[in-house]
Amino acid sequence: RDVPGLSIAFVEDQKIVWAEGFGWADRARRLPARADTLYSTGGLSTLLTAAALMQFADQGTIDLDQPVRKYLPEFSMRTRFPPAPAITPRHLLAHLSGLPAMHFMNMWTPRPEPLAAFVARLRNEHVANPPGHMFSPSFPGYDVLGRVIEAKCNQPFAACMQERLLAPLGMQRSTFDLARAERALLATHYWSDKPVPSLAVRDVPAAGLVSSVAELARFMQMLLAGGKLDGKQALKPSSVGEMLRVQNAGVALDLDTRVGLGWRLSSVHLPQAGKVAWLNNE
After folding, report:
1. Average pLDDT value for the chain
2. How far are the Cα atoms of 117, 182, 242 from residue 133, in angstroms, in the given order?
3. Which of 8, 30, 56, 59 is in the most buried spot, having the most CB atoms within 10 Å?
């Protein structure tokens, strides 16, 4: 398929047992892909945003089943489905909120719109369906969660994520701020074999993480250890379990699609495996 390069890390029983790169991080500069090569992780970003939100749930400062407006009074959207339940953090985490899937205009730009401004503009948009009605992945939904995190931290989302999650997990080179990414390690983007410039994404909580497989493996180590890494508890075991619990079992329109909080829990079957949790770089 002429993929320029890729990196892989394998975590088993809380240990990184293999991490390696293949091909090129940058063909023109002959930079090989390595385990510490930095990539734009796309939709994998939602897993870390979900984990940060769950930290506030652990502290009791956010209830997943209360209306989002309790924590973000400026959030509102139009609806054609009255009466409908209020949108909650759980709805947003599990992509059951009914928010539109994408808002493509100005998604990639040298100067992304701040989360506060984008979330405020959602008041002029309609929900696609009532909350809890069906699973529908939504970048704007995770933008709302990112804005909730900003409000709780009283600082920009990227800075909050660095302080509360990335640094404590030892993910020192990972960042939600593309401008801060270590350029010498950053892989070049290619489209149809042509290099394309790296542009910041507006939907930072949904798709803005820059990281390496070596550092994402540390996040996986933490989850496999029930929320603990290097002797520090990043998440309660119950929150890790909740992220991996099916959230839409009673949603008739979802048929056999099963989702957790951030994770997909169906469609992938591995021999001799029990529950399989996965997420692709959308």
Report:
1. 94
2. 27, 42, 20
3. 56
C-beta separation of 111 from 145 below 8 A: no
Helix (H) / strand (E) element for 240: namely: helix 237-243
Residue 111 buriedness (CB in 10 A; 0-12 / 13-18 / 19+): exposed
Residue 282: pLDDT band with limits 50, 70, 90 = low
Per-residue DSSP letter, 165: I
When pLDDT is averaged across residues 110-139 and rounded to a whole number, the result is: 94
Cα Rg of the chain (Å, integer): 19
CA dihedral (50, 52, 54, 55) in degrees, to 10, reads 170
Give the closest residue to 178 by CA, choosing from 129, 108, 84: 108
How confident is the model over 27-36, as pLDDT tens digits? Answer: 999 999 999 9
208 touches 201 (CB < 8 A): yes
